[in-house]
Structure prediction request, 691 residues.
Amino acid sequence: MDDRPAPPLSPEPVSGPRDGDLPAYLGNGLIGIRVREVPLFVGMVLVSGLAGAHPERGIEAAAAAPYPLSGDLAIDGVWMSEQPWAVGDLRQSYDFATAELHSAFTYQVGSRTLSVEVVTFASRNAPSIVAQEVRVTADGPCDLKFRAVVSIAGLTGRIARRRTDTPGEPEPAGDGSLLWETAEALGQCGLALVTKAPAAAGRQVLTWSDAGPLCTEYEIRLASGRPVRLRQLAALVPSVLHARPDEEAVRRVARASREGFDVLRRCNRAAWAEIWEGRIVLVGASSRHQALVDAAFYYLNASAHPASPASTSIFGLATWRDYHYYYGHVMWDVDAFCLPPLILMQPDAARAMLAFRSRGRPAAAANARLSDRQGLQYPWEAAPGTGQEAAPGAGDAAHHEDHVSLHVARAFSLFADATGDQRFLEEEAWPVLSGVADWFVSRVSRTGRGFELLRSMGPAEVPSPPDNDAFSLMAGADVLRRALRVAERLRKTAPDAWKAVLDDLYLPLRSDGVIAAHDDYDRREEKGATPSPLAGLFPYDYPASPSVSRKTLAFYLKLWPDYVGSPMLPALYCVWATMAGDRDLALKLFEEGFAAYDRPRFHQCLEYRLDHAEGPAAGPFFANLGGMLLGLCYGLTGLVVDDGEPDTWARRPITLPADWEAVRIDRLRVRGRSARLVARQGAERAELSFS
Prediction:
């Protein structure tokens, strides 16, 4: 096995228009931007915690902010925006190792052609900053004009304040600032811009009106073949992080300007080099599968940051105009699939995501009381600003898909166990674990068969919620076990009801020994192929007997052709096949259940496979890519993280997909130390070692 470090595999460069594919998505966990083929054309940007009223649904949703890196070019007074058909030779490449998007295009007016090269990135070290360098070369002498614009085109909201001066200062700290207010005044975002150009360029900050965008214009004479560089730095600060965010944005961008573009770029590259030390290496796998794992690793890490105030959505901080993107709401998929791998990769970022749930405890308590239950019932679709329920319309799923709270509680428990952070356990994890345990006990009903979960829907969303969804019951048992264990560690008195429910919790079992998805389950029913009981076996580690586990795996694995193409659970099929000992099937299901969701343009994993999609392609979808990473970190390695010593966490013999020799992660964070995890095909256990 080759242990030499290798760089991540970036997507293949692309050329020409997207033709319906999604634009590139860049992010740093606080800011996410969609960049078009011509990066100066207006894209879209989301800022964590920025909420507004959705223009169609009226609900609280993630709100797009003004686009900070747009611009325009003119040759001898003819603007690119006025004749975009003169743009050609579109090329883009995305370097995942450095998190930089490189774009190139030409712009021709008459006999004169500009060659334009653009580098765009979102800074990890200064997470409120996005940066762009535009390099322009002419094929002959001409007059170039360049406009750097913070654009408000296509947005709902208003400019509450616009400044191009810095009060009390003889010279402005930058080009200007905006205070953007979203629809129905649900949130505000401050933006500030600084631009740089060669000293020979003429410069003017266009005043326009108090309701207009920010715009700085440069004019310079170009010589043939001699490039000029123009740079844009912009800060975006949501009001959830600062009460006067436009003023803070000015301070942040001024600091970035003093450091300079080159320093920001170098520091960003260094930050990503450190993140990539935790790259997941598939020894023996095809380069295509390794590239898809690298893409998933990149997009997840690019959408999480310690500065994030509002966790992340199931599309990260990505959105686009042709789809709802679930309104940027925080949903159970993030807690169940994305947080477990992040806890080992970026624990500080994972903690910030959990902090959003901690701040949402009052909303979860109110939600429980409104449903006549105890404890904490987290919302099905948590709004990014308030953390309250924001499901659209009648909120049918919110009425019956109760399992979200169980994933939230488990994520808190995993973080406490993986980090060994006693203070977090006492102050953050215990209130959530105990609150969700109280809720679960109040949610089940005592019957002659034990404690049952009536009219509760699992991952298979059907019109009429069944009784005793197995996935929810198996997850509930895990949360009760964890809550009881933590109560013992902290010397708390656990309610007697927790153990009583755990000891007598009903689970539907078919006559053939297979765990039924719910009462009266029929594989021919609508969404009957949904493998939700398998998700109870992994990742929820339900302690079924070997016979029940074997029969349940065999039963639902046979149904995979009727389920793949849907979102979420198909990414876990590979792990389940290895648990059944079928290496060939595991490789096939890695392809069918994950790889087939890929779009080659920048490897954005889609929500639905295109052969199952009924609407626009949407991605990157974090339930799919997070589920796959969860499977690699915990499933194929047999890792069960608990409060015991880490050398006891590896608990299963290693079976990998066909041709894979090992899964190797050279740097994880475990109990405050750097660890290395290697799972070799055929080994009795994975190796977790500390450096």
Observations:
- DSSP finds 16 helices and 26 strands in the chain.
- Residues 14-276 form a domain with the Beta-galactosidase; Chain A, domain 5 fold (CATH 2.70.98.40).
- The longest helix spans residues 422-443.
